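Q: I have 696 residues here and want to know how they pack in 3D. Can you give me a structure?
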Amino acid sequence: MGRHIVSHIAIAICLAGSPSAAATVQESGQSDAEQPALVAGRDSAQVYQRSFFDQFTPQTARDMIDRVPGFTLDAGDDLRGFGGAAGNVLIDGERPSSKVGGIEDALGRIPANQVARIEVIRGSAGSGEAAGQSVVANVIREKQGAAGSWEVKLERAADGILYPAGELTVVRQVSGWKTSTKINGFWERFPLNGPRTQFDADGELLSSQLEDRPSTLTEAFISSEAERPVGGGVLTLTGRFGRSAFLPETERLSFDGRLPDQNPDDRFFIDLNSVFYEGEFGVDWNRRLDSAWILKLLSLSSFQDWGQDQLVSTERPVGTPVSGSTFTRKQDTFETVFRGSLAKAGPGRLRPELGAEIAYNSLDSQLSLETRDLNGVNVIDLPAADVLVEELRGEAYSNLIWQAGNGLSVETGIAAEISQITVSGDAESRQSFFFIKPFATAIYDFCPGLQFRLGVRRTVGQLDFSEFAASASAEDDRLLAGNPDLGPDQTTRASFTVDLRSRKRGALNIELFHEWRDDLIEQVRLPSGNFGAANAGNGRLWGVTANASAPLSPVIPGGLLELELDIRESTFADPLSGTNRDISDVSSPTLLAEFRQDLPEKKLAWGFSYRAPLKRRFFFANEESFTRTGEQWRIFIQSAHLRGWRTTLEFRSVGGRNFFRERTFYEPSRAGALSGSEIIDRDRGAFVSITVAGQF
């Protein structure tokens, strides 16, 4: 009986999603030409013509991607090299030749009037271009023409201060090159304040603080792309350069043994200046060798120069300086990647791909710490405070897509990676690694509106080279030693995906997954006796992700409800405490719900969204930290009455947003006894902004 019910449901879904059935029932105000078309062929695809997005008044391809039903942008995993970081968006069938700016920056360089259509591909989009993604959006651009888009924004923070943002994108032909350039910059303010309370092991109040933390963030970037025919193929040059600064200034008024009153016992200042300069340059050339084979060559280099100063001072009583400290950290990173691939394209049951990649990464890190009191200056030495970390890595891979027929296709592949990591300076180490990374995925198109996907994949994580070096945080009063013996973690992921789509903007994508994680990097007590990161053992993580798009017409004309949900559970055998616990920094659940109503005939749209509270746990060697970022409500109203420009009035964090944190301390480590705790309860008020955007 159950099998018959499932069968009937599947048939009903297929009929609802098929072109013939869907064509009889139209979205209010939408012609048949504007409905997304379900396309059969080599891959299961759904095509959204540019006219489909007109009702949303998009300004860039990024705006259009946000409005693709049942689709959530994935900028790419934090995996090694260029091939492992594939996201789920292609541009003209190719990945953007960038890692630093990535997909979002590339989409922001495409004005909406330069997009011909967006194809949502459910299946083998090309293993080398979007490997491991169950649903891929392919943005197809217009071939000719100059265009541009612009946006200006003025926002007011809860403390009444106004700050601006702006963006300009220009697409044009220059001496045979098709170019796209984006310039953007903003200054943003994030006031945050609330109490901090400290307790001893018995829960008795030790002290309290009132914290005021007005923070500012400034950014200015320019990114550009230029392409033209060269050598029988297409040459693409990309570049991105800019500066970003995060400047929080923290003041804490402290009260000994009591809750806050009008007479603080001391005052504590933290002035943090964090600034980085970033750049990237890429060269991508591809050529069709004959009717079936495509050769692709890529060179990509990037750098980041980052500096941070933390200046701390204490006044006791208020107005009388008694102590202070200075933390100075400088890090220079560099990465260069060379990649080549040869893939068979076009029709055919078998589509093989071969490729290789070689990469060099480096981090040069220096950290200096000193404290000051009435007795003078004291210099603090931490292991690996001044180190150079270098990695040379090579990889060869082979992928195969097999169109088995009757709606079934199979993607398989294997990669072999060899690397060497060298650490020099205050700490020295040399390690060699070899990894085999296979994957296999079976895709079954039950009908044009329903697809099943079953896959397993082995990946290697990208090391955070900053964990090889010592670090310090004045805000949390935490010093961490560097560990020169870190190695990359590895993950084996099994997943099952169901994807449903209809022509009436309806979509549902659900993925069940289970991950086996080896050599997880967690905080431990190092052999030196200091606290730091290490490969601490193995763990597992499992859960479900879902995103859905549900049209609400004819009940609410032009209404649309979109949901994104992620639920995760994990387990890790903690070598420090000898117990099973969650993997550090696993957020669950995450939920985003958005309702919008588009009224094209009135040139209006409005809506609201709700983001559920976000909970995380972090495990340090002598501390467990629980954070809860409160719920967030957003309301917006959009109008296209002013010269066809899109004007948006937005209220963000309506009713304010709470940031709660509880820190629990142990001595001498989490294997020892409870020694105290701290509760931090801060609030941020609402933001109001008005944005005007247009195209030319």
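Q: Anything worth noting?
A: DSSP finds six helices and 35 strands in the chain. Residues 18-34, 38-43 have pLDDT under 50 and may be disordered.
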